[in-house]
Amino acid sequence: MTQIEQAEQDDQPLDPAMEKVRRKMIRLQIVSGSVMFISLMAVFGAVVYKAVGPSKTATATNTSPTVPSDAPVAATASLPQGFTIENVSFASGDMLFYGRLANGTRKALVFNVQAGRFVADITIDAR
């Protein structure tokens, strides 16, 4: 009585429709597992890079201009005659003067404060 019949334990072959669904599910499981594995490796890679890579504080101190402790930096930027300033921007010790010359030509002039001179003179040609 307690013995289970052998016929109930044997797996019966699935009909073709169910076999097709089973294969699709296995394929979906493999693809999903692969995506999760790749994502997990990307996260571990980012953590290792962040732990081993260069620190932002070391690079920030190297790129910032040095300010003398006894006096501020004194520099004069001599803009071209008739230059009208439309916008000014400052980043990493460089000042960008954007404007127009007297004849209407648009220019961008980059002035380095530490060097005390213009490092770029860009004429903007809008066609």
Automatic annotation (TrEMBL):
The answer to keyword Transmembrane helix applying to this record is yes
Record keywords, A-Z: Membrane, Transmembrane, Transmembrane helix
Per the UniProt record, which residue ranges are transmembrane? 28-49
- What is the name of this protein? Fimbrial protein
